């Protein structure tokens, strides 16, 4: 799974990326700070099972703090987009090419309206975030459309002559863009193109299909960033009034600050917390106090910085992932080396224990026999559908030797 962070130039994508990955990449208040894509590891937040099982876990590929498990997921910070990018404006198709591998998107918007369409700073409230959302979506659709519709007449005629289904050919054409066959078939259906011969699809049909395939294959959360600027509140209300229900108000900069302060032992804060607590021995300057008071007001108004919430909502609601804990010993909840609850895997809803085995290792999948539910100590059928926070022992021919 790869989450792409997209958006207009200079809206806070890299700050958001820094906030979720804790890596330092360049940020600055001018357009195109990020030119090369930055790939990093972010963490989704779930309730760990360690408290329920009353064990002291020592995870290897994830992190557990006070019963909160942070599970890694790859994110990519993508260069900013300006209107006309599909025609090569700004960093143009570079943006679009970097977005191709993403399975889901966090679309960062300057919800305060303090950057123009090209990403240049303007007075807060003078730009329209709704326009930004639309143009970014349209650029994405136009880019997909240029791939889908390349030499369409020749492509569609060949399909007809060879008696090949357009779904299959489109799947080939769109391979490498993290778009599945199901997305393609559904998008054809939603575009009312099931019964229209591909040779007579016109530009509008191809664009409609591209838009639908984008919506299906790249689930998106809108991170309405810069909630610390006062013009943001009204803009978020307008966006919601216009029917956008996938919006999370965000303060990317505040999240970076809080994480840094927590690292420096100034306060207790875990990403996704609804409050932070200044440590009793922290020696805060007046300036630090002022900043923390401002962030505190944001917590009161919005509940959190929204950054972790955006990532979690994308993964668990939009992508419908579940987190599963595989173990070798269903009693001790350990792996071979005795690590307790060593791993957490993110899988799509509807996955079976065999799917989990495939994700862990090809060899394990090959010799996979059956799975055991570590809660009930019961053997599971091959068709069992894994549930969020299941603890699963996988038994293979190799592990029984
Ligand atoms: N007020 C406020 N400013 C923010 C916030 N997040 C980011 N910024 C500022 O917005 C400006 C742009 O931030 P970046 O993270 O570099 O933006 P970007 O979208 O990656 O920019 P490009 O890579 O150039 O497209 C910087 O001055 C940040 O400090 C926020 O939550 N609140
Ligand atoms: Mg950037």
Explain what this protein looks like in three dimensions.
The structure is a single chain. The mean pLDDT is 91. This protein has 401 residues and is an alpha/beta fold. Helices cover 38% and strands 19% of the residues. The chain is flat, with a radius of gyration of 23 Å. The chain has helices spanning 13-21, 50-53, 93-99, 129-148, 152-162, 166-173, 181-190, 203-217, 232-241, 252-263, 286-302, 307-318, 353-360, 362-366, 397-400; strands spanning 2-7, 38-47, 63-65, 68-77, 104-110, 220-225, 247-249, 267-268, 277-278, 321-327, 345-348, 368-373, 378-380, 391-396. The chain has 3 domains: 2-123 and 219-314, Rossmann fold (3-Layer(aba) Sandwich), CATH 3.40.50.300; 142-216, Helicase, Ruva Protein, domain 3, CATH 1.10.8; 321-400, Ubiquitin-like (UB roll). β8 and β9 (277-278) form a beta hairpin. α4 packs across α8 (203-217). The strands form 3 sheets. Strands 1, 2, 3, 4, 5, 6 and 7 form a 7-stranded mixed beta sheet that branches. It has a 5-stranded mixed beta sheet with strand order 11-10-14-12-13. It contains 15 helices and 14 strands. The structure holds guanosine-5'-triphosphate and magnesium ion. Residues 7, 9-15, 27-29, 31-34, 80, 119, 225-226, 228-229, 251-253 line the site of guanosine-5'-triphosphate (GTP).
């Amino acid at each position: 799974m790869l989450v792409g962070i997209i958006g207009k130039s200079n809206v806070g994508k890299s700050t958001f990326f820094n906030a979720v990955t804790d890596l330092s990449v360049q940020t600055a208040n001018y357009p195109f700070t990020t030119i090369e894509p930055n790939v990093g590891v972010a963490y989704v937040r779930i309730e760990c099972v360690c408290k329920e099982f009353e064990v002291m876990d020592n995870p290897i590929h994830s992190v557990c703090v006070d019963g909160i498990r942070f599970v890694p997921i790859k994110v990519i910070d993508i260069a900013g987009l300006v209107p006309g990018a599909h025609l090569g404006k700004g960093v143009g198709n570079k943006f679009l090419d970097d977005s191709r591998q993403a399975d889901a998107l966090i679309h960062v918007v300057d919800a305060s309206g303090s950057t123009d369409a090209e990403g240049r700073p303007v007075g807060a409230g003078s730009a329209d975030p709704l326009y930004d959302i639309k143009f970014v979506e349209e650029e994405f659709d136009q880019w997909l459309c240029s791939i889908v519709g390349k030499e369409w007449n020749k492509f569609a005629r060949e399909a007809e002559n060879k008696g090949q289904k357009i779904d299959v050919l489109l799947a080939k054409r769109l391979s490498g863009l993290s778009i599945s066959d199901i997305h393609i078939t559904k998008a054809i259906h939603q575009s009312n193109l099931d019964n229209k011969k591909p040779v007579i699809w016109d530009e509008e049909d191809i664009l409609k299909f591209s838009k639908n395939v984008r919506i299906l294959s790249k689930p998106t959360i809108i991170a309405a960033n810069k909630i610390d600027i006062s013009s943001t509140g009204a803009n978020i209300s307008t966006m919601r009034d216009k029917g956008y229900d996938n919006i999370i108000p965000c303060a990317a900069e505040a999240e970076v600050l809080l994480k840094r302060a927590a690292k420096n032992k100034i306060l207790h804060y875990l990403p996704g917390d609804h409050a932070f607590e200044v440590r009793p021995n922290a020696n805060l300057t007046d300036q630090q106090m002022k900043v923390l008071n401002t962030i505190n007001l944001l917590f009161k108004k919005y509940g959190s910085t929204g950054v972790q919430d955006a990532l979690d909502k994308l993964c668990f609601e939009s992508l419908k992932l579940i987190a599963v804990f595989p173990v070798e010993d269903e009693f001790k909840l350990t792996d071979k080396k005795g690590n307790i609850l060593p791993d957490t895997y993110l899988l799509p809803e509807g996955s079976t224990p065999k799917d989990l085995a495939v994700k862990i290792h090809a060899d394990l999948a090959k010799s996979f026999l059956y799975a055991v539910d570590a809660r009930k100590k019961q053997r599971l059928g091959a068709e069992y559908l894994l549930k969020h926070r299941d603890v699963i022992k996988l038994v293979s021919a190799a592990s029984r030797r």
